[in-house]
Specification:
This protein has ten helices and 17 strands. The chain has 334 residues and is an alpha/beta fold. Helix 4 packs across helix 5 (170-181) and helix 4 crosses helix 9 (283-293). The two termini are 14 Å apart.
Length: 334
C-alpha cells in the first residue's frame, strides 16, 4: 500500500509500505478521507512524532476490509469513523471511563501509524459504525467536532448566554456551532483579520475582528499568549473561560491579566481531546447524531480537498499559510 512515512522532522516520504498487521480485536480500515489537523504541521515540520518512522494522520473515515477476530466479521464492509486515542484501560482514569485522560495511552497518527495511508489498523473498540448516507469527508471531521463538543460540555455552557470564541480554526468554529445548537443567546467567533469572515458567516455565525463587549462564556481555541490574554480580558465578571488551544509556546500572564482572573472571579476550565466509550453515549456518539440528523453541517468548513498524491500540497499550504483555509481534506483510494 502507499503511505506517507515520516522518517525524521521534515522528511515525509510517499512510499510503498507493507499492509498493517491485524491481530485479534483489531480491524483494517481502507481510508477514504483524512483531514489535516493543525497539530500535524509541527508534528511533521518541526517537533516530530514520538518515534520514527511513523505514518501521521488521526482524523479519518473509511471502510472496514478485515478483522482479526471472527466474531467481529459483521464489521467488514461497514463505513466507520475512529476515535484515535487508544487507552490502556488499566490506569485510574480508565477505571472511571475518563479514557481521554489515560496515563498510558497510545495514539493513531503520532504514537503509532496513522491514516495518511491507504489502510490503517484500528482497535475494534475505537471504531464508530456509520450510516452509509454520512459522507466520508464529514465523517473524517468527527474528531475535531467531538473535541469542540467536549470543550463546550467541560465549560458547562448554559442556555441563553453570550458566547465568544477566540480562534477561527476548525475546532473553534465547530465550538460555535455546538454553542448555537445548545441555544446560546448569541455566538461570536473572534479572529485577527477579515480573511475568515466568509467561512464563519457561511456557517451562520457572527464574525468579529475584536471582542464586542464582554461575554458570559469564552473559549480560547488558538493557544498563543496573545490569544489567552485576550480571552481572559473578554470574560464578564463571574463568567467562564475554557482553555482549549494547544499551546504554541510558554503561556505567560502579565500581572494585570492575572488580576483579572482573581478580581472577576472567573471560572477557569481546561479541556483536552474528547470523551469516548465505544458505542455508549459520549461526545463522539453525539457528534455522529448531529451530523447524521443535519443538526450540524460540517461540510462548509472544508475549504480545500486534495487527492492522496497531493497531501504534501495541503500540508505546505497550511504551514506557509499560502491561502485562507479552515479544514484541509485529502481523499484516498478513489
Amino acid at each position: 500500500m502507499k503511505a506517507y512515512v515520516l522518517h525524521q522532522v521534515k522528511d515525509l516520504q510517499y512510499v510503498e509500505v507493507p499492509m498493517p498487521d491485524c491481530p485479534s480485536g483489531w480491524a483494517i480500515v481502507k481510508v477514504k478521507a483524512a483531514g489535516i489537523c493543525s497539530s500535524d504541521i509541527p508534528r511533521i515540520f518541526s517537533k516530530g512524532t514520538y518515534h520514527f518512522p511513523t505514518i501521521p494522520g488521526h482524523e479519518f473515515s473509511g471502510i472496514v476490509v478485515k478483522v482479526g477476530y471472527k466474531d467481529d466479521a459483521g464489521l467488514v464492509g461497514k463505513h466507520v469513523g475512529a476515535f484515535p486515542l487508544i487507552p490502556c484501560k488499566k490506569c485510574e482514569q480508565c477505571s472511571k471511563k475518563h479514557y481521554e485522560m489515560c496515563s498510558h495511552y497510545d495514539y493513531i497518527g503520532s504514537r503509532r501509524d496513522g491514516a495518511f495511508a491507504e489502510y490503517v489498523a484500528v482497535p475494534v473498540w475505537n471504531l464508530i459504525p456509520l450510516d452509509d448516507n454520512i459522507p466520508f469527508v464529514a465523517a473524517a471531521m468527527l474528531e475535531p467536532l467531538s473535541v469542540a463538543l467536549h470543550a463546550i460540555k467541560n465549560g458547562q455552557l448554559k442556555e441563553g448566554i453570550n458566547v465568544g470564541i477566540v480562534g477561527t480554526g476548525m475546532i473553534g468554529i465547530a465550538a460555535g456551532l455546538w454553542a448555537r445548537k445548545m441555544k446560546a443567546a448569541a455566538v461570536s467567533i473572534i479572529g485577527r483579520s477579515e480573511d475568515k469572515r466568509q467561512i464563519v458567516e457561511k456557517c451562520g455565525l457572527t464574525y468579529c475582528t475584536q471582542a464586542v463587549g464582554e461575554y458570559d462564556f469564552v473559549i480560547e481555541a488558538v493557544g498563543t499568549p496573545t490569544a489567552v490574554n485576550s480571552a481572559i480580558s473578554m470574560v464578564k465578571p463571574g463568567g467562564s473561560l475554557v482553555l482549549l488551544g494547544n499551546p504554541s509556546s510558554d503561556i505567560l500572564l502579565g500581572q494585570d491579566i492575572y488580576w483579572r482572573i482573581l478580581r472577576k472571579q472567573l471560572h477557569l476550565y481546561g479541556t483536552w481531546n474528547s470523551a469516548y466509550d465505544g458505542i455508549n453515549p459520549s461526545d463522539w456518539i453525539e457528534a455522529v447524531d448531529a451530523i447524521g440528523s443535519g443538526g450540524i453541517d460540517v461540510l462548509p468548513l472544508v475549504t480545500h480537498v486534495f487527492t492522496q498524491e497531493c497531501l504534501m500540497t495541503g500540508l505546505e499550504l497550511m504551514r506557509d499559510k499560502k491561502e485562507t483555509y479552515c479544514k484541509v481534506m485529502t481523499l484516498w483510494n478513489e
